[in-house]
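Listing S7. Sequence submitted for prediction.
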Amino acid sequence: MLKLTKYEFRKNRTIFIIFAIGLILLQIYFMVSTYSGDDEHTIISSMMLFMYSMVCYFSVFMLAISSYSKELNSKSSYLIFMTPNSALKIILSKMLTILIIGLILLVLICVLGYFDISMILDAYPDVGTIAEFLDEMMMAAGFHTDRLFLSIFTAVLEFIISFFSIVTLAYLSITLSATLLQNNKLKGIVSFGIFLGLSYIIGLFSNMLPYLYSDPENIFYALISTLPATIFNAVVMVASVIGCSVLLEKKVSL
């Protein structure tokens, strides 16, 4: 499976290099603007960095879905399935590639975010003073900044986990389109409708799950509070992967 994962990386390395070059250029733009004390360009570059990072992060998942769809619908999927690898290994290698890239990007965004915020605080001390003032105001109103950030962290973590499960649902819908619905003229519309329906149902169930800690005190409790959603989405991902592999083994037209 590692060889298949390496193949997935090599296949998409050009777009990854383009993303990396764009991120490096924007980071240089931000650093030069901050060190030179150019307020306008510091604001512009920081906003561009944030937006570009988000676009890159979600584009990786969208490109993975698009690539998988092209592989099945271009009638060249037999080239992959003629290799001595099971459909489950092939699907898992694709999922593993998405997971690794997603984690790398997430860590990179967090590290750059911490570095850039520290740079802004060093270059503009007034920003730190304003932040402290707002923190005192929020505490006087009964809000704790650390709790607020933990709540935001929890929400972002749950979103990332649920988003990855949605990606696996997209894989399942594409597989349905290329297997059971391959002779249906409206297979694209039908599979998209199935994807929307499954996503909606899973979203409803996910929202019904209990929060173990509604107001986590630290990161450990924040992680524990996402446990029900994590388990539920893990079940969805496993079911989707197994569904894809079974359909590809039994129904794919080679």
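Caption to Listing S7: primary sequence and predicted structure tokens for the chain studied. The longest helix spans residues 87-123. The chain has a mean pLDDT of 76.
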